[in-house]
Amino acid sequence: MIKIKQGNKEAIFIHIPKTGGSAITRYLKEHYEWTPINLINGKESSHIFSRFVKFDAPSFCMVRHPIAWHESLWKMLVDMSPNFKGARARGFNPIAIAGLMYKPVFSDFIDTLLEQAPDYYNETITRHYRDGMKWGKQENLNSDFLTIMSNMGFQTFGKVRQFGGRNRKCEWKEGQKEKIMEANKEMIKKFNY
After folding, report:
1. At what angle do helices 106-116 and 66-79 cross, to 10 degrees?
2. Nearest-angstrom CA–CA distance, 38 and 180
3. Distance CA 62, CA 145 (A)
4. Are strands 2-6 and 9-14 parallel, antiparallel or unpaired?
5. Strand-pair partners of 9
6. What global pTM score does this model have?
7. Measured between alpha carbons, how far is 99 from 89 in angstroms, rounded to an integer?
8. By CB neighbour count within 10 A (0-12 exposed, 13-18 middle, 19+ buried), where does 65 fall?
9. How far apart are CA 118 and CA 115, in angstroms?
10. Where are the domains of the chain?
């Protein structure tokens, strides 16, 4: 989470994991004055929960379709170091908790998630998003992000450079997508998915 400034305009970007937040954070740091507002033990952490921070400027975030979000989450876990998979989660670190449920086969990961935390997507979004916050969709990252920035009065500087996707196949078992959608219907409805 960072606070950006351009002239007399200020805004706070809330990084929800697996929604394009790293690419947006990089863009913001390249083009605006910025300050981390999520210091934990003196170190910057991109995943502190916005509900624990008092905002003194407008805030915005990006969201992602829950099916694509779960696929991206698993692909990231596959590539992470073995030391992180199964790491002890302190509080609610969404990536560490997902690491506790990690399975090398995607559909097994989804089965575990459905058994242990079926509304994990809802939970993750809820811990970051606040009503009244401006938001865009990762699927339309550049157009939504640039529109948000323009609407808040910021000058923009071209497109956000997104990271390349991880080239791993996610095979869903029959019925898993429907269960994920049903368990996470609160955020699906809120963000028109």
Report:
1. 110
2. 30
3. 8
4. antiparallel
5. 6
6. 0.87
7. 9
8. middle
9. 6
10. 2-190
